[in-house]
Specification:
The chain has about 140 residues and is an all-alpha fold. The protein has 7 helices and 2 strands. This is Reverse transcriptase zinc-binding domain-containing protein.
């Protein structure tokens, strides 16, 4: 169970703040929550891959997906996108709990694209590639 309370208002630890249905655990929050599943499906759709959520976040991070191909750029961008998705979900969780702010899934997706593109841009694999080019077409920049 993760902490789920505001400083001034207690929330039930049995409720996920993102879907308001299930208990909050790392596996639920980052893999099985309906909001998060939508983001993962969008990422896998972009990579033209089918996806079934694994049992645990540990399993998810252990699987060696080749979402954007076998090139160094593809691997770097896939890893950045996966970690960005987890980070954005965590930010959203905290914003809803501690700031009473709620963003829609489109905003969250745009945040994932920006973060993943920025992190890839900072890597050696994308040296010399402008950030806006990375942001516009992940598939094209990963194709050798």
């Amino acid at each position: 169970m993760l902490q789920v309370r505001r400083p001034y208002k207690a929330l039930s630890p049995d409720i996920c703040i993102l879907c308001m249905k299930h208990g909050e655990s790392a596996d639920h929050l980052f893999l099985h929550c309906s909001l998060t599943i939508g983001l993962w499906h969008r990422l896998f759709q972009l990579a033209k891959m089918d996806w079934v959520p694994p049992r645990s976040i540990y399993d998810m991070m252990s699987i060696n997906f080749k979402g954007f191909g076998n090139s160094k750029r593809g691997i770097v961008l896939w890893q950045a996108a996966s970690i960005a998705l987890i980070r954005v979900v965590w930010w959203e969780r905290n914003a809803r709990i501690f700031e009473d702010k709620e963003r829609n899934s489109e905003f969250l997706w745009d945040s994932i694209v920006f973060l993943a593109s920025l992190w890839a841009f900072c890597s050696k694999a994308f040296k010399g590639t402008p950030l806006n080019v990375i942001q516009l077409d992940w598939i094209a920049v990963c194709t050798p």
